[in-house]
Amino acid sequence: MLELVDRCFPYATEEMMGWWLCYQRPLMHVARLDGRVAGFVHVQARPESDTLWINILAVTEEFRHRGIARQLLAHCERLAAEWGLGRLGLQCHEDNASALRLYALQGHAQVGEDFHADAGGRYIVHDKALPASAIAAAVRTPAADPRWRCIAHRLIYRAWTRRRARTTR
């Protein structure tokens, strides 16, 4: 998985990678095929805009064109419904034609553009409204809420680092 994350963050520092892998791990959802990591998606709840934002969706090259990205998008739709969010949002680099085609086929509308000089240029912003029936049918539980998962993971990580620091003295 580290190789895939490293490919998706080519401009990231080691400190930034540590932050993503330690503190953002509860928001990363991994797809496995034949016991190997086939891809992952990193999501972020944005309740102020009623959106589940997809920060990164990546599939390893050997597993492309097998429906992994579609399954990850479907998983994101289920997560949004569970968390009570009515929309999916994401950005895609303008040169990524296969991803742009996939998002269009899955019902994501292009709603704007964004420019990131440090990340390599122009991105197309996509949005998809989820059916109200899916959101009403989903049950929101504290365990599914991303904020609780992040808090729990941070507490475990801090306890582990303190214990590790005591044993190395």
TrEMBL record:
CDD domains registered for this protein in UniProt: NAT_SF
GO terms for biological process, alphabetical: mitotic sister chromatid cohesion
Source taxon at top rank: Bacteria
PROSITE patterns reported for this sequence: GNAT
Positions of the N-acetyltransferase domain: 1-131
GO cellular component, one term: NatA complex
Signal peptide from the UniProt entry: none
Pfam families on file: Acetyltransf_1
Gene3D superfamilies: 3.40.630.30
One GO MF term attached to the UniProt entry: N-acetyltransferase activity
Protein name, UniProt field: N-acetyltransferase domain-containing protein
Organism: Sphaerotilus natans subsp. natans DSM 6575
Source species taxonomy: Bacteria, Pseudomonadati, Pseudomonadota, Betaproteobacteria, Burkholderiales
